[in-house]
Amino acid sequence: MSLPFDQIGLILGIPAVAAALMAALPGYRLTSWLNILASLGTFLAAGSLLISDRPAPTDLFLIDELNIVFIVLNTFVGFTAACFSAGYIAHELETGRLTPVYLRFYHAMYQIMMFGMNLVLITNNIGLMWVAIELATLSTVVMVGIYRTPEALEAAWKYFILGSVGIALALFGTILVYLAAEPVLGEGTAAMAFTRLLPRAAEFDPMILNLAFVFLILGYGTKVGLAPLHAWLPDAHAEGPTPISAVLSGLLLNVALYAVLRFKMLMTANPATLEPGPLMVTMGLVSLVFAALMLYGRRDIKRLFAYSSIEHMGIIVFAFGMGGPLANFAGLLQMVMHSLTKSAIFFAVGHVAQIKGSQKIADIRGLTQSHPALGWSLVIGVLAIAGMPPFGVFMSEFLIIGSTFERAPLLALALVGGLLLAFGALLMRLTGFAFGEPTPGQKSSVASLVPFHVHMALVFLAGIFLPAPMVEWFQAVAQLLG
Amino acid sequence: MNTLAFDIAHLLAGGMLLVSFMMIYQTRLYALLNVFAIHAVFLALWVAWQAVVQAAPHLFVTAAIALFFKAILIPVALNRIIQRMGIQRQVEQVVGTGATMLLGMGLVALSTVLMLKLTGGTNALLREDLAFALSIVLLGFLMMISRRNAVSQVIGFMSLENGLILAAAGAQGMPLVVEISVAFSVLVAFIVIGVFLFRIRERFDSVDVSVLDEFRGERR
Q: Could you report the predicted ipTM of this complex, rounded to two decimals?
């Protein structure tokens, strides 16, 4: 089926136009509605890709099996986070943490960030991809620092410097890929388009590709939050507004991961290069174990879940590093489940922080008693992210462990060890803030819990039943990833 | 291969590398800014020379950006920021100058060996260009790690970025070089504005973990 409009144009155009509009329009109510509408429009345009014919790839844009998963997920969570954000910022305005001028700025930046991320996912050009990741990074940096407290500025600065270094490394890697491709494909944009690089990757100089991949995985890996390069992530999550924490964890990490996966496909297509798998498995495993250990000492609730994001990105990178149809399938599922669950948890945590007026776990006690609906919701969310059945995260983790056991039992042991460590830490912290004597706090929060419940319902459904078309689709992607 | 073209490119890129080393031993911020301006001038000349050699007129735009933005505008702006905000004028070092210089030489040796070995198949100009570029990038890193002041970290980042432009412009016929250099300029402008707006005065002791823990409210 072909549709009467240009989907790529809409997916990129709506956020761009909305950003300009929101920078110009006064009144936060209007702009927060506009933010929701624009995100919804982008999501619908992205969703229509599922039912329509795919636009033919050009040298600039590309829609294939792999990036549709990312685009739909990206625009969906972008939309629900916009819904959550509307209620959240109304409260921030009341308490005076943000002023109307900053809100206008916030909304414009939100859409610029969505534009940047969509561009990364949709582009076929490795240079444009780099520029788009830089754009998405810059807009999130600004939003992390929006409260302008010393902590927020420190966090924004750290994110900025580490993020810049990361993207600088990635650019060097990108240039090297071009250099490897140029003798084969000739000068110009042809040597920068994935669709043209991939079929002829076997003819590229393997040494240059090796070096390029090391730079790319270090560079984009910084943005994924992999262990030695993760230092920006907890701070940025903890100090920024909570909708942004949700978007960072749920989306931006995935977007960077997508870039890594694309280049990994390039590496696999050339048999003479280094295997990218072991490198990714090592980085993933180190991130997992490190983050699981770090979870124990956390005293700030947003920081706790930020480390949990590092842990999950570790698992996902591990799965993709193992490769093969089953592990890729599981990694993809884990990524989708983590995005939905983690952003839902941040929605709930946003409410908690507003009700209690603090992010310290010590100040948040007895949630299930003082605010049963919110408290139990959060308990369910934490159980889901910790990998308890019947939620989707359990299923994907189970698949990852299963497929690893088959091929590398020792690695699977390490993986299970890391997962158990993280599980214990999350449960320990959960009893800290969910049960016990309640601490004083407000009666209720303005924002609604609907986005949270929508996400959790999806995660629950995925845990008990995966529709056959979705399984087929993910299998096709897993095949593509090699 | 035209020897003159090669020699001039070699001279200019080598000049940049030398200036990178000069930045390491500066102890005053103003002096550091001036040396950075020289770094950017060398970059502009090199890119302009590449524009001539590769017959790629769009590279002149990149050269012009390097000259006006990085060699003039940014140093002047940072200069005024230092004055107006009363930022400490000394460069605080985590590692001493001598040790940093030795480390820097090690990094240059490493990147030269790595690059010349890995890129055996390509032409000599490109190989040397990549070796220089990687050295400059690593020296920029070294500077960011070994300094505590926000401003000198920014300068370290900009010199790193110069190294990247060197690599990008050296790649024969690479598209988007101009766009990438514009994107980088936006990034740098953002940093400089950030330093000013957010009043990032003194330093970030990311090495001193106890201070960070206090910031995070996680001290036991």
A: 0.84
